[in-house]
Amino acid sequence: MLREFFLGFIRIHILYHASKNPIYGAEIMQELMTHGYGASPGTIYPILHSLEEEGYLKSRGINVSGRLRRYYEITKTGTGILEESKTRIKELVDEVLNEQ
């Protein structure tokens, strides 16, 4: 059950980083590791693909040292859902952490 909670956090984290700069799978796995998420390729790549299918990310392949690397960027729709997520996260954190 805990895994399900973290998958939502990971999706938002991916959108956040894709809003700053184009990202690729191995890079975002390393970023998530700095926050204590042990996300494997079997977790990250399906999330990236689903975010793209849902219209939140768009990708393009770039040849890097003879290998195709897929970079993901946030879309306008993705930016909207990220902003809505930030608002909801703030409300939730304020409520949970400021419990009286």
Give an account of the 3D structure.
- With 100 residues, the chain is α+β, with helices and mostly antiparallel strands.
- Helix content is 63%, strand content 16%.
- The chain has a single domain (2-97), classed as Orthogonal Bundle (Arc Repressor Mutant, subunit A).
- The chain has 4 helices and 2 strands.
- A two-stranded antiparallel ribbon has the order 1-2.
- Strand 1 and strand 2 form a beta hairpin.
Low-confidence spans: none
Shape descriptor reads globular
* Strand order across the largest sheet: 1-2
Count every beta strand, where a strand is a DSSP E run of 2 or more residues. Answer: 2
Residue fraction in strands: 15-25%
SS summary, helix count: 4
User: The CATH topology, please?
Assistant: Arc Repressor Mutant, subunit A
Mean pLDDT: 91
**Biggest β-sheet description:** 2 strands, antiparallel
Could you give the distance between the termini? Answer: 27 Å
Q: What is the CATH level 1 assignment?
A: Mainly Alpha
At the fourth CATH level, what is the homologous superfamily?
A: Winged helix-like DNA-binding domain superfamily/Winged helix DNA-binding domain
| CATH architectural designation | Orthogonal Bundle
Structural class: alpha+beta
Provide the gyration radius in Å: 15 Å
What count of structural domains?
1
